[in-house]
Amino acid sequence: MATEQRVPARGVRKRLLDLMFVRGRVEDVRPAPGRMRWIRLGGVPGLEWTPGQQVRVHVADITAARTWVSGAVRNALRTYSVWDYDPSAGVMELCVMDHPGDGPGARWARNARPGDEVVFGKPEGKFALRTGAYHLFAGEETASVPFGAMLRALPADEAVFGAIETARPEDALPLPRAAELSWCHRGDAAAASSGVLVDAVRALDLPDEPGTAYVAGEARTVQAVRAHLVDERGWPRRSVQVKPFWTPGRRGLE
């Protein structure tokens, strides 16, 4: 009688992960301006990606029993915008904010080392370029990551305006077409409910006709920027894309 061969549980988990998620390896980790950190992942060719999209990184092993028993599965995923991706080379560049504290996402980013395996979901999200008379970008450091990818993808002959807030001038990411953007600085003030960014957008000398706006960052601030564009400048709400990434007291927003 033939003996039934059992597939090890670990092998089953790996096959399930390979069907549902993407596996890559850290190739490089280096400091970025401000409290940001570049993390380059390799070995991920052929993914479909639209500039502005994000990936969900497994900062804990969701197949491990200890992750579920401890309740850590609630914090096992962290969402990061993609700074750049080369599908032919299979290289993805993330730019991750080093948040204060010792949360799972902060630990993952601080401890990432070349050679580490990284499991993440395929690129997703609808925050992406649209057609318009011109393009307006407004946000702070967390918004600068998708903005970098979107600005890089824009044709050179399409008009760009923007207000980008950082704590200090040296905290600015190297955004494409940076000279066409207005930069503002909040100093030691909080980025939440930032009147600095709203005032910077209000001061922009925009064309009379509405364009297409991409507003991202802290939830209350992006709502205030949208209210300015819609209520004060008369823009249609459909012309303003809003992406709230975070707000105080919440682990993350979608």
From TrEMBL:
SUPFAM superfamilies: Riboflavin synthase domain-like (SSF63380). It comes from the Bacteria. PROSITE patterns: FAD_FR. Residues 19-130 form the FAD-binding FR-type domain. InterPro entries: FAD-bd_FR_type, FNR_nucleotide-bd, Riboflavin_synthase-like_b-brl, SIP_FAD-bd, SIP_fam, SIP_rossman_dom. Pfam families: FAD_binding_9, SIP. This is Siderophore-interacting protein. The lineage of its organism: Bacteria, Bacillati, Actinomycetota, Actinomycetes, Streptosporangiales.
